[in-house]
Design a protein that fits this description.
- The complex is a heterodimer.
- Chain A is built from no helices and eleven strands.
- In chain A, the strands form two sheets. In chain A, strands 2, 4, 5, 6, 9, 10 and 11 form a seven-stranded mixed beta sheet that branches. Chain A has a four-stranded antiparallel beta sheet with strand order 1-3-8-7, with no helix packed on it.
- Chain A starts with a strand and ends with a strand.
- By secondary structure, chain B is mainly β.
- In chain B, the strands form three sheets. In chain B, strands 2, 5, 6, 10, 11 and 12 form a six-stranded mixed beta sheet that branches. Chain B has a four-stranded antiparallel beta sheet with strand order 3-9-8-7, with no helix packed on it.
- The chains are: A mainly beta, B mainly beta.
- Chains A and B meet through strand 4, strand 5 and strand 9 of A and strand 5, strand 6, strand 10 and strand 11 of B.
Chain lengths: 114, 114
């Protein structure tokens, strides 16, 4: 089944404790992206990647890092989480073949930073 | 830069009534437009999309949307709402010259009265 998976689905942590949220897709998509969802703000893009070893900032990259060492994986790293990073996070992927294509979203990771 | 506005944060309709969710966008060229639905505790599911051609697009679950260039709108409609349609709905615009980027509106939460 074609899908985007994220782990963990739920995470409660404390300020300053480094964490990684994993994202993996099995559709051989070139494009992957991370979003955060906050009430009233919709989804805002954090980082995106057009292909392996190619990443770029989205609208709200501060406090986050990403890497794209393999095509299928795009982990989101919070080196020193703070309470304002408490949010619902979504990973997405899409093909870049033939122009613009729809993005497929993972199930989300709900992060709470105390 | 593109932007999306969903003027209604909350909407309540009675089961069986018709529904229209508003979406206005700002983009300098012909946009790619999307409607996503997020059921409680779930990820985002694509309802429908507009890339080009017929301005009235049909989606899943009985939804449709109409692209009106003159009004910069892409409103979502359904003739008869079911209780299972209660969810949050997001309109999004895609920029084909910005790396597959999606810009989301703030979302509209739909509640359905029995």
């Amino acid at each position: 089944e074609a899908q985007v998976t994220q782990n963990p689905r739920y995470l409660i942590t404390v300020t300053g404790k480094k964490l990684t949220v994993t994202c993996s897709q099995n559709m051989n998509h070139e494009y992957m992206s991370w979003y955060r969802q906050d009430p009233g703000l919709g989804l805002r893009q954090i980082y995106y990647s057009m292909n392996v070893e190619v990443t770029d900032k989205g609208d709200v990259p501060e406090g986050y890092k990403v890497s794209r060492k393999e095509k299928r994986n795009f982990p989101l790293i919070l080196e020193s989480p703070s309470p304002n990073q408490t949010s619902l996070y979504f990973c997405a992927s899409s093909s870049l073949a033939g122009g613009y294509n729809e993005q497929f979203f993972g199930p989300g990771t709900r992060l709470t930073v105390l | 830069a593109q932007s999306v506005t969903q003027p209604d944060i909350h909407i309540t309709v009675s089961e069986g009534a018709s529904l229209e969710l508003r979406c206005n966008y700002s983009y300098g060229a012909t946009p790619y437009l999307f409607w996503y639905v997020q059921s409680p505790g779930q990820g985002l599911q694509l309802l429908l999309k507009y890339f080009s051609g017929d301005t009235l697009v049909q989606g899943i679950k009985g939804f449709e949307a109409e692209f009106k260039r003159s009004q910069s709108s892409f409103n979502l409609r359904k003739p008869s709402v079911h209780w299972s349609d209660a969810a949050e709905y997001f309109c999004a615009v895609g920029a084909h010259n910005a790396g597959n980027m999606l810009t989301f509106g703030g979302g509209t939460r739909l509640m359905v009265k029995p």
